[in-house]
Each structure stands twice: as structure tokens, then as C-alpha cells.
Amino acid sequence: DTKCPAAALDVIDALSWLHSQASALGADASRLGVLGESAGGNLAAVAALHAAQQPQLPVRYAAVFYPMVFNAFDTRSYSLFDKRVGLNKCGMEFYWRAYCPTAQACDDWRCTPLTAGLHRSHARSHPQTLVVSCSEDVLRDDGVRYHAALRDAGVDVRHVQVPGDHGCTHRASHADLAPLFEGLRRNLLSA
Question: Residue 132 is inside which H or E element, if any?
């Protein structure tokens, strides 16, 4: 029910709070990571972009799974998987209109992170990022485009495509997912 950028601002506030309260929580403030799926992938992307602009907020790693990062419906994946049961083009158009009801809101990087002109200027401080797409998902090309934008800006980014439709990681085997989380573990535990 809340319109953008309210959710993004909540995530940014939560990340800042976590950083400031890390020692009280028994956590290491220098080893923060963000992870999100679908709409949460949008918020994880926003958190990573925000952290890249805030040197005092050391986010080391971002994992962005099948993210909704741009409100364009003209991609090949929208065309290929438009009529599927589950998440489809009609559903995504509804969700975007509900979340981002005006053109002005949709131009805000906190709503559509793929529109951010921040990638190149903040690439050195942007956390290493893993982008996961599902092979038969309307959002597949959002992930591919987000990965390309980060890569082209010089961010250390990796893209993995998992077989299946939206939510593919929920149905993947542990053996398929273990390598995806190795980077997260390695980056958060390294000195």
C-alpha cells in the first residue's frame, strides 16, 4: 500500500540503524551485506547504491535475486513469459503502478535502481554484487540489464541464471545454491 520511495527509505534507515547498533547486537559493523528477492531485490539494489554514496556505511556484498529494477515491459523475457501462470506481465504492470504510480516517482533511483546514474561515479565503493535471474521469469532481463549496468560501470559483479520461473531459488537444490552463497560468506568473513 505504501508508494515509492517509502520502502526504500525504510531499508536505508534500517541499514543505517543496523550499522550504528551492530556492536550492541553482537555483530561486526564492518561486515554488512544486503540480500533481496524480487521486490526485495529492488530494495537490496537501492541499499547497495545508497551505501556506495556513504563511505561510513560499509556494505561489503549485495545479493540481488530476480530483481524488479526497472519498470519497462518491452524486454524479451516479458514477451516470452507474458502468459505464464504465476508472475506475468499483467501482474508486474499492476505491481509497478501500485508501487510507483507517477512518472516522476519512477524516475527516482530509489524506485527503479536501474535508472540510477550513480553506477559509474560510485563503482569503487559499490559492494561486490551477485545478481541471480531465473531462466523463465518475466524479470529475467531486469537482472541481466542490472548486471550489465553494474559491470559497465566497473562494479565487481557476477550474474548467475538459475533454471525455472520466478522464485526459482526456492525450488533449486542445495547443491545448485551453495556456490551462490559462497561469495556472500567469503566477503563477509574476510578481513
Answer: strand 128-134
